[in-house]
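Q: Hi! First time doing this. I have a protein sequence and I read that you can turn it into a structure. Is that right? Here it is:
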Amino acid sequence: MSDNSEIDSDVEMQDLDDVGSVSTRKKKLKSVNYKQIYKKDWEKEWKWLQPSKKGPTFAWCKFCTCDIRIARGKGEIKKHVTSAKHIKLQSTVTSQPSVMSMLTKQTKNVDVKVKEGVLRLAGFMAEHNLPLRLMEHIPPLIKSICTDSEIAKAIKCGRTKMTNVLRNVTGDEGKTQLMDILRTNKFTLIGDESTDRSCSKNLCLVARVVIDFSIKDYFLTLLPVKEATGAALFTLIDDFFKNHNIPYETNCIGFAADGANNMMGANNSLSSRLKEKCPNLFLMKCICHSFHLCASYACEKLPNEVEQLTREVYNFFSNSPKRIDEYKEFQQFANVLPHKILHPSQTRWLSVESVIKRVISQYQALTLYFTEQAFKA
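A: Yes, that's right. Below is the predicted 3D structure, encoded as structure tokens:
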């Protein structure tokens, strides 16, 4: 009986050992967990992520400059993204410009300022009517003066480039702006024909506009003229306004020109045709031309010898450097200013007055000089 009990106890002990070994194996199986390692593909989703030096189960955050434990999986990264620290640092770093962006922006600023400088040079040349040949010398001069300026060093503009800038950039832009102004504002037109000695004739048009309670005059166009009749001039102006979609019939409120018959005649002139298109048009003749006509009619009552004397005095000195040098000695002796004798122009209005004043101011020296010439003869 005792032997059987011992056998039973041994069996029970063996069963307990088997049960213990099974539970131990289960514990060992439970303790073996999967550990997440860093994946390179995550950097496509999060640009600020990179491998950590602590090992494959960590990731490095560029914004927070700290390690993220990722052994439990990708959710640890998502949890870090929503943290207050990461959100704050990410917004701060994102708002800061990079070195490359700063360099690119600085380069763009320099390029913009260089273009602005070229446009300012173009405006200066046009405003003061300077020869474009100067552009071969102005940029090198600026570079030699402003040696520490990157903008001055970058300006490269010769005569050809300046011509194209004036013609195709500032010229076209200014013309476009002026046309827009004339389409929406009232304006007056000032016209005059060229009086030079060239074979070609031109009609110059100037527009006077009120902008912000300020009166401004703008050069409008220069139209080549084949026939200077009132009908031909009107056709040129009418075609110009129609080609640029300017309703001059309603916007043009005034016209000014000289008193020539083809411009201001009562019938069959440019002004009479404009008056038909613009019934309320205000006409204004050139004041200088009117004064010239008044002075010319008044001078007809004066002896012709006065004007003839001024012409003969000018002709006596005009083509003789020797006589001019001799006359300078008499100017010094009579203590008068060394001025030249003026010519009474045939086309320049009211020029006789300035000629007579010059003769009177030089009268003492002229009297002495011609007296000596009379004795020599």
